Amino acid sequence: MSGGQQHRLETVEGLLLDLDGTLYVSDRLFEGSLRLFQVIERRGLPIVCLTNNSSKRSSDYVAKL
Questions:
Q1: How crowded is the C-beta side of 4, counted as CA atoms within 13 Å?
Q2: Separation of alpha carbons 5 and 2, rounded Å
Q3: Which of the four pLDDT bands, split at 50, 70 and 90, describes residue 30?
Q4: What average pLDDT does this structure show over 18-31?
Q5: What is the dihedral of CA 5, 15, 57, 19, to 10 degrees?
Q6: Which of 2, 7, 22, 23 could form a disulfide with 33 if both were Cys (CB 3.0 to 4.6 A apart)?
Q7: What average pLDDT score do residues 22-37 get?
Q8: pTM of this prediction?
Q9: Strand pairing partners for 28?
Q10: Residues 1, 38: Cα–Cα separation, whole Å
């Protein structure tokens, strides 16, 4: 993540992130997704992950992440 992009995150207080098709597809993580989670974790930001895929239980998504 470039310095300019990271600077934009300085004013963010929390995140809502879609999962399938945004952060990953099937078992393939998109480039930059891991780095995004590292920045989120380092900043201690609250995060809520969302999906419209009802074929799995929430525990399945927790295990995957």
A1: 0
A2: 5
A3: very high
A4: 91
A5: -30
A6: 23
A7: 90
A8: 0.66
A9: 25
A10: 11
Per the structure block, which two tokens stand in for 26? 């099937």
Task: Kindly report the three-state secondary structure assignment for every residue of the chain.
Answer: CCHHHHHHHHHCCCEEEECECCCEECCEECCCHHHHHHHHHHHCCCEEEECCCCCCCHHHHHHHC
In whole angstroms, give the CA distance from residue 59 to residue 24: 17
Instruction: Give which of 56, 51, 54, 45 is closest to 13, Cα–Cα.
Output: 45
Amino acid at residue number 25: V
Q: What length does the chain have?
A: 65
The Cα-based distances of 2 to 29, 36, 38, 45 in angstroms read 19, 11, 14, 19
